[in-house]
Design goal:
The protein is of the alpha+beta class. It has helices at residues 2-11, 13-39, 64-73, 81-84, 107-118; strands at residues 44-46, 53-57, 79-80, 94-98. The chain has a four-stranded antiparallel beta sheet with strand order 1-2-4-3. Helix 2 packs parallel to helix 5 and helix 3 crosses helix 5.
Length: 120
């Protein structure tokens, strides 16, 4: 395994792969942030600096579970902060939105469906 990895490093395959995937994920992240700004402006976006997920903070009183259920009914899978993370103090409602497996062209319509699930 190590010899195979060394060969990929020598040929530059790993560097090319990393450059390509960074560009793809950067484009997806930017498309998601842009779509959220247009379709769900009341959400405050955080966590964009690293990883393959964003946090969309919702207005106080938003029901994460109802939103997740409505989004799923519209074909959009999301995670909620309070269901999928451990919190030790009261914290505002939020959605965890992954963009690692969705293509850029599909992001705007997915966020529109999410906005409808939120009730916009």
């Amino acid at each position: 395994m190590q010899a195979g990895y060394a060969k990929l490093l020598e040929r530059g395959d790993i560097d090319r792969h990393l450059r390509r995937t960074r560009r793809q994920y950067h484009a997806r992240r930017n498309a998601l942030i842009d779509a959220l700004g247009k379709s769900l402006p009341e959400a405050s976006v955080a966590g964009a600096a690293a990883g393959l997920h964003l946090i969309a903070w919702l207005p106080a009183g938003s029901d994460e579970d109802s939103i997740a259920e409505a989004a799923a009914g519209r074909g959009v899978a999301i995670h909620t902060l309070h269901t999928n993370c451990t919190t030790t103090a009261p914290i505002a409602p939020a959605l965890i939105l992954g963009y690692g497996l969705i293509g850029v062209p599909a992001i705007p319509s997915a966020v529109e469906q999410l906005a409808m699930a939120v009730g916009r």
